[in-house]
Structures are given as C-alpha cells and as structure tokens.
Amino acid sequence: MTDPVLTLAADHGLTRAAPAPGDSPLAIRGMTVSYGEKPAVFSVDATFPPHAMTAIIGPNGAGKSTMLKAALGVIPRLSGEVTVFGRPIGKARDRIAYVPQRASVDWDFPATVIDVVLMGLYRRVGLLKRLTGAHLAAARDCLDRVGMADFTDRQIGQLSGGQQQRVFLARALAQEADLYLLDEPFAGVDAATERAIIDVLKALKAEGRAVVCVHHDLATVARYFDHVFLINVRRIAEGPVATAFTAANLHATYGGRLATAHLDQLDLGLGGAS
Amino acid sequence: MSSLLDALLLGAGYNAALVGIGAGLLGFAAGAAGTFLFLRKRALVSDAVAHATLPGVGLAFIAMVALGGDGRNLVGLLAGSALSAWAGLLLVEWITRRTRLSEDAAIGAVLSVFFGAGVVLLTVIQTMSAGRQAGLEGFLLGSTAGMLFQDAVVIAVGGTLAVLATWVLRRPMTLVAFDADYAAACGYDVRRIDLAMMALVMAVTVIGLKLVGLILIVAMLIIPPVTARFWTERSGRVIWIAGALGGTAGYVGAAISASAPAMPTGPIIVLGAAALFLLSLFLAPARGVAAALLRRRRFQRRVHRRQGLLALARSERVHDPLTLKVLRAEGLIRPDGVATDAGRAQAARVARDERRWDVAREIHQDAGLTGRYDGLTPIEQVFTPDEIAAFDRVIGGPSPVGGPV
Amino acid sequence: MGNEFVQFSLTPMLIGTLAAVACALPGNFLLLRRQALIGDAISHVVLPGIVVAFLLTGAVAAIPMLLGAAGAAVVAVIVIEAIKRLGRIEPGAAMGVTFTSLFAGGVLLLEQSDTSSVHLDVEHALMGNLESLIWFKARGWGSLLDPVALAALPDELGRIAAVCALVIALTVLFWRPLKISTFDEGFAQAQGLPVGLIGFGLVGVAAVAAVAAFDAVGSIIVIAMFICPPAAARLMTNRLERQVGWSVVFAVASAVLGYVLAGYGPLWFGGQNAVSAAGMIAVVSGLILGLACLVGPHRARVGARGEAA
Fold this sequence. Notes:
The complex is a heterotrimer of chains A (274), B (405) and C (309).
Chain A: H1 4-11, E1 26-35, E2 38-48, E3 53-57, H2 64-72, E4 79-84, E5 87-88, E6 96-99, H3 113-119, H4 122-125, H5 133-145, H6 161-174, E7 179-183, H7 191-206, E8 210-214, H8 221-224, E9 227-232, E10 234-240, H9 241-244, H10 247-254, H11 260-265
Parallel strand pairs in A: 3-8, 3-9, 6-7, 7-8
Antiparallel strand pairs in A: 1-2, 1-4, 4-5, 9-10
Helix pairs in contact in A: 3-6, 5-6, 6-7
Chain B: H1 2-8, H2 14-39, H3 45-51, H4 53-66, H5 74-98, H6 103-126, H7 138-141, H8 149-178, H9 180-185, H10 190-229, H11 235-259, H12 265-283, H13 289-313, H14 321-329, H15 341-363, H16 367-372, H17 385-395
Chain C: H1 2-32, H2 38-57, H3 62-87, H4 91-112, H5 122-127, H6 147-151, H7 155-173, H8 175-183, H9 185-190, H10 195-217, H11 219-234, H12 240-268, H13 277-295
C-alpha cells in the first residue's frame, strides 16, 4: 500500500476510519442533497451514538434540517445510504419518532390536542382496529409528561407556539420509539416550554434512547447535549461535546460570522483552545 | 389554404375581419391582464369570474324582455354579466377575508354556485315565449356564427379599450403583482389596485364571452402568461410576451375558424395557445424541460464523480451504482472497481483541491466563503492563482516547494 | 301523490343524494389539502373523455363513456402534476392550463365528429339531466318489493350507489393514513407512509366519484358538492370526524331541498315548468355555505398560526 496518491491523501488528513454503522441509531454515508444546482448537503457521513443526546449545529442555510429530512426520506437524496440500528431505514420506521418543525403544518386543521397525539399511535394500531381506552390513557399520559394534560380537547389552532411544540413532542412520545429526531424543537418557544422539553428529552436518554436535535442556540449546547455534529453543507466535525465543540471547529463551521468575543461567552468543551 | 390566407389578410368578409381584429386585441389584453393574476398566484380567480357571468346574462335577458326590449341585445347582456361577475369577485374576497376558508375553496364555491344559478335561469328562460331562440347557450362556448355586425363592433371596440387600460395601469399593477408589501410601503393602495386588476380581468372576460365563451376565456387569461414565463425572468417582459402570444393565438385562431367549417373559434384559439405552451414547456432555453433534464443529469453525474474521487482518495470502496458507472465511463476505475492511473491522478487533484479549501477556510474566515464550500465549486473559481499558490505553500505537499512552512 | 312521487321523484332524488355524498366525502380532504379546485379540473375534462370514448366505440354506451371520462381525469391529474414539477408552475395555473386545453380539445372533437344523430352535447355534460332519471315501472311504494319493477330502475342509480358505497368504504378503511398525511405530510413520510400514493389515490377516488356523479347529474353539481358541503362543514366544527359528518348532512340536504325546489318551487310562484334540478342543488349548497359563513360557530380563524410564541 505505497500508492503515492493515497499517501498524499493520508498526509492531508483525508483518510479516516470508516464509520461503524452496526448499532448506531442513525448512520448516514455519502449523502448529498441539492435544491436545484447547489448542494445543500454534500457527501455527508454521520454516525450518531446510542444512549446520547446529539445536537446538529451549523449556521442558517447550512443544511441542518435538510440533512435530517433527507435522511428520513421526507426530501429526496441525490446519493447516500441511511441505516437505523444497522438496518436500512425503510425497515426500521417503527423505531423512529420524528418531530417536524412547527411551521411545517397548517394549525388550522380540524383536530384537537388529543387527536394529534393519537396520530402517534396509528402505526401500531393499524388501519381499522378501534382505539381503546388504553390508547386514550396512553395518549393522555404523554400529554401529562409534556405538561399539556389540561389542554386535551383544545383545538390545536388555539394553542401558543410553545404549546404546539409540546403537543408535537407528546405525539412522538406516543410512538415509543428508540430514536427521536427533532427539527428545531426550541425555535420560538417560551422558557417554560424549553425546560419542559429538555426534561423530557433527558428522561428519554436516561431510558436508553437516542435523541438527535437540529439546534441553533450555541449557548445551550454544552448544557443540553452530550454529542455535537457540526455541519456547513459538509460535515465539519462530530464527537463528544468536550472534544468536538471547540472554538476551532466552530470557526470552521460558522466562518467569520461567529465573533471571537461571542465564542468567549460560550460554555465550550474542554478542548476549547485552538 | 387560400381561404385561411384570405382570413389572415382580413379578406374573408367584413364581420370576419372585425372578429379577427377583436380576437387579436382581446387575446393581447387577456394575456397581459392574466399576467398580473398569474404573478400574484391567483390565476384561478379568473375561473370564478368567468363562471359568475352566467346568471348575469340570464337576468339581463329576463329584465330586457320584461321591459319590452330585445333580450338578445349584446351590450345589455354583457352589462348584466359584468354585474354578476363583480358580485362573484366580491364574494370570493369576502369569504377569504371573513372566514377561515382559503381562496381556492372560495373560488370553487362561487364558480359552482353562480354557474348553477345561471343554469337555473337558463331553464327559466327556455320556458318564456321570448326565450325559445334566445341562443344564450352560445355564451357557454362562444359562437361567432350568425354574429351581427353590431356585435363584431362591440368585440373590436372592447378589445381596444382593454388593451388601452392594460397599458395605462401597467406600472402600478406590475408593482403589486411582483411585491405587494413593497408597493404598499411605496404608498400605493394595494387593495384598490387589486380591484382594478380584477376589473380588467372581468372586462376581458365579458368581452370574450360571445367570442370564446365563459369556460374557455379562462384559458386565454391563464395559458399565455404561463407560456411567457418560460421565456424570461423579468416580470415586465412577461406582460408583453404574454400579450403577444395571446394576441397571436386570438388572431390566427379566429382566421382558421373563419376559413373552415366545424372549427369553433373558442376551442381553436385555446388549442393554439396550448400548442405554444407545450412548445415552450419542452424547448424554452433556460426553464424548459429538455434543458432542465440535461442540466439535472449533468449535475448529478458531477456530484457522483466528485464523491467517487473523494472515496478513491481516501482509499475507500465505492458502493453506489451510479458513482461506479460514472467513474467507469470516464476510465477512472477498472471494471473490478480498482482505480486506474488516470483515476489516481484525478483523485490526487481532488484531494489537493480539498486540502486547499481547508487552508483557505482557515485563512479567510468569512461567511461568503463557507457558503461556496459546497464540494463542487473548484477553488480556482473563488481565488486567484497567487492566493492558491499561497495555500499550497501552507500545505507543503509531496514535492516540497522549499522553505519553512 | 305517493305513486307519482315514487315514479317521478324518488329515483332522481336518490341519485342526486348519492352523487352529492360520493363527491362531498373526498371533498373534505381535498379542501384541507388546498386542492379544492381539483374537482373543478376533473369535471371539465370529463367532456373530452366521453367524446373520445364515443369516437372510439361509435356508440353512446354508458360503460365505455365512464371509462373514457375516468381515463381523461387520470390523464389530467398526471399532466397537472407534470406541469407543476417540470415547469415549476404554481398549482392553480397548472390546473388552469390543463383543464381548459383538454376541454377545448373535447369541444373541437365534438364539432368535428358527426354526433348530430346521438344525444351527446356540451350542455348535457354541464347540466346533466337529473329529471329524466325516472322509474317508469313504479306503481307506488309497493314497487320497492316488486322484482319486475326493481329491474327497471334506471342504471344510473345502481352505478352511483355502487360508487358511493366504494367511496364510503375507502374513506373508512384509509381514514387514519388520510388524516395523518393531510395534517402533517413530513411526519407521515417519516413513519414510512406512501404519501405520494395516498395523495394520488385520493384524487383518483375523487375522479371516480366525479365521473359517476357526472353521468347522472352533470358537472355543476360535481364541482359544487366537492366544495360547498365540506367548506360549510369546516365552519361548523373543529374536529375532522364531525366535519365529515356535517358535510354529509349538508350534501344530503342540498340534494333533497334542491330537487324539491326545482320541481315544485316554480309552481309556488305561478310558473308551470320545473327548473334545472342540478342547478338548484348547487344553489342550495351555496346558500347553506353562505349561512355557515355568516353564523357558523367556527367560521373565523383563531389563535396562533404557527408563528407566534
């Protein structure tokens, strides 16, 4: 193996250990997604760890949400493979719970809070089986866990943004999945909701489930998450907060948009020095 | 064939000539007026307007007969249709504003209910002694057969007035159609301009009723703007291209219809416009389907080529079938997947490009640059040769340039 | 009275009611998906469909014409989707281009072909002829138990009843996937639901309902029933289950009231002839929607619409 080209590549840090997607809750290989003629996500590899909370971070337009949606097949991929717990994603749908961005649906839809949560059970209940009292009780329990038990029969259009986000989370809880994928769950919600959501997510992690959030608030990364995945069209870095959430990686991700003064206020991991 | 030539040269009789001129002008006005609707994403409002004319036609007929006049007076019928179309428009606006229903539901409700009411009135007219030969069904599909000279004059004059109105109002309407918020900030009364836009659409509809009928006039308001959009990215030009396309379809369609039997004017005009649309959809240079497919294919191959070379540079195996195909087709890998000499050379270039980008991003930490680091932009497009040489000095490389790094 | 009612009014009223329900059910989902006007588009392309079927078979037979109409609806839906995607044209404009062009083609074909000997014309396609679907053999309510009389029921009744039953069965069977993919397409996709197929299936069912209803009652009712009862129902409640229930009630009320008003209304005003039942049914559904817009308990938009915190 003395191929000069490959040696060159090795010199330049281009080689890396092939990801071991075996038991990763979510592993992505060589995924490219484009809107028109510009890649929004280019050749991204990612291996999210089990029993952990991971934040996908990057500047606006860096492809964070696109990466999540394309992995789930909500938008088409130009290339790439996705595995969930070692199996092709199409065969592991029942182990995934997805919380889309709140703005992606029409909240004027004729449904009540409990209706939305029950949607999380549809996959298990099937087409025709009747919803029983046990199902209703399970849905109410999920609402209770996000602090929305008092709003069961409220029309969803009458909720505040934070309450809508909690209902979405309750629906995901009802799915009883092993992998939770959340797209900007903290965007535009009140402080109480943010606390409620993070408590639920931490409880999920404690139960041994994996949580992946598209996240935009750098100030809370170190407090909320164990792992980070930095993306700006390409994968910039990935790893535990302590080693990957560094000033150098943030500079590489955000470019000059992130003033050094701002960086100093962040609760960076141990490897903060560049 | 010679009769078609005659018709095109206005030699097929006085009425036919007037109808031809009227159809051309009407087509122009419809294309231009429809552009404003299309750019405002309200193209199907014209559908509601058109169907809402029918009860007006019926009521006008009944009223004129009740007053002892001739129920078939075209000016009277058109005035009635304008009134009911206006009522329909206001209802669409009222439903959208006052209730939670969206505009498409309001459009559908108004068009079906008004049309239903119109049909009820038509059956009432059929039972009136004066209504036996009213010929109001002609307003459904248009009919130039047996058209009076006076009717042809109404169409020609109406078409001229509609074109003039479009010309006078083109600036405020373009502004509102393009960016209503900006127009409001500039001090324009968006609601009034919207209403003027609707009034123009209504005028075109009413004039076109006799010629192409209320169902097909919708086509003249929608198809030319959609077609024009394929040929330009500038809203100002869409208006005139749409007008020209509509005018051509109208004039030529009327001529064909006048030159042969069993060639109803309305459908011929609409099918002419549809043919122009199909041509544009497939063949337009920038937005056409053929061009877009080619671009998409080239783009996808570029992505796979680059990803494949990156994998080669990292001495990873390539699995993706399309990537393998692209690399093989260019002789970059052997059939068994191992890189050829050419493949290794290309991989080395890609690896160098990647490394240069890494360095570039370390040196120039600015936002614009990160945006162009998309895996496909060659670094030569962003930096000068001198700058790249500077990156190479940082990299070092397999054959050291010399001097400390 | 009884005899005359059974003979002349029972079957048209039943056919109108079944057609109204078959259209209103898918109409609910189309309305919520902002695709209400697809019903408009489908009902316009029915004409070219039956004309082509007539030219191919040379006869005015119900089954080939229904197939032709259904084929035209499918073609139209595919063309609309293709124009939307390939040409990057907004849905409304893509629909407008498609259905007007196909309709124009249908009218031209009709003019060019010799259909003077057969009963095939545009007005009939638009307005239907509900009044003519009478039960000749009926001699009163007792005929409902008489096999000979039952065999002479208009064919349209059997067809629309079968389609209505099909629509109801499919709505019940696919209720959950329909509801979830209509409310939150991304979530449905992440669960592995084939949302594209569900959307196409919905439009397909709408097309079948439209074609069967059109056969009996003409295009106007079809468009009106796709939109007016579901729209009025949306203003009555904030739950999908109840909305669909209300829409069925409104559809039945429109059909029955409209038919009665068309048949007997003119008599009250001193006229002698009935007016178009199809037109009157559309008008009644519009009046119901108008009332719902004025006094429906849930007529106004309320609350946060996804932006406010």
